[in-house]
Amino acid sequence: MSYADAIPGLYARHAEAFDRVRGKDGFERPWLDRLVSPLHPGGHVLDLGCGSGEPIAADLIGRGFIVTGLDVSEPLIRLCRERFPGHDFHVGDMRELSLERTFAAIVAWHSFFHLTPEAQRAMFPRFASHAASGATLMFTSGPSAGVAVGEFEGEPLYHASLDPEEYRSLLSENGFVVLQHVIEDPTCGGATIWLAQKS
């Protein structure tokens, strides 16, 4: 089994540890402000790789949005359902995303970059098919093309990134306009962030 294929099992085995160490102080809030700035409260937001629902889904729900969350880890989705019973959380793999509906915004924060480069390329038509006209899309990537293997709870943790120009091309080919791209944002834990909008 490859490191990438091991991701679902890792987050299932270590769901409690992930929830415990996942920062919940809201440092992502300025970017969430940008994600939802064109939207009206009550809009539907898709959170891909939602984890335990905190802080991203919690923040969006607190703003009055209706969240649909997807994650490969059943224990993490169970936590989401316990915490946010009025919202819709599914166990599933974003690579097979097919909800047959569109959303006002899509966010894949620190989740999309666990996919292989090939799987990332294949996600852009799925983003497009789930994005309403004018919808915003936000995801995090690496700063440049490559693979990095970190560690979580003593197990290898896979990350990959395409080249920024390839992300731009994929977004454009699938009907998105890049609004912002910040490499290793020092105000957001060093995350490399993409914000785009469906034309």
Automatic annotation (TrEMBL):
InterPro entries recorded: Methyltransf_25 (IPR041698), SAM-dependent_MTases_sf (IPR029063)
A Pfam family per the record: Methyltransf_25
Keyword Transcription applies: no
Keyword NADP (UniProt): no
GO biological process: methylation
Keywords carried by this UniProt record: Methyltransferase, Transferase
MF GO annotations: methyltransferase activity
Domain Methyltransferase: 45-131
SUPFAM superfamilies the record matches: S-adenosyl-L-methionine-dependent methyltransferases
Record protein name field: Methyltransferase
Organism: Agrobacterium albertimagni AOL15
Lineage, top ranks: Bacteria, Pseudomonadati, Pseudomonadota, Alphaproteobacteria, Hyphomicrobiales
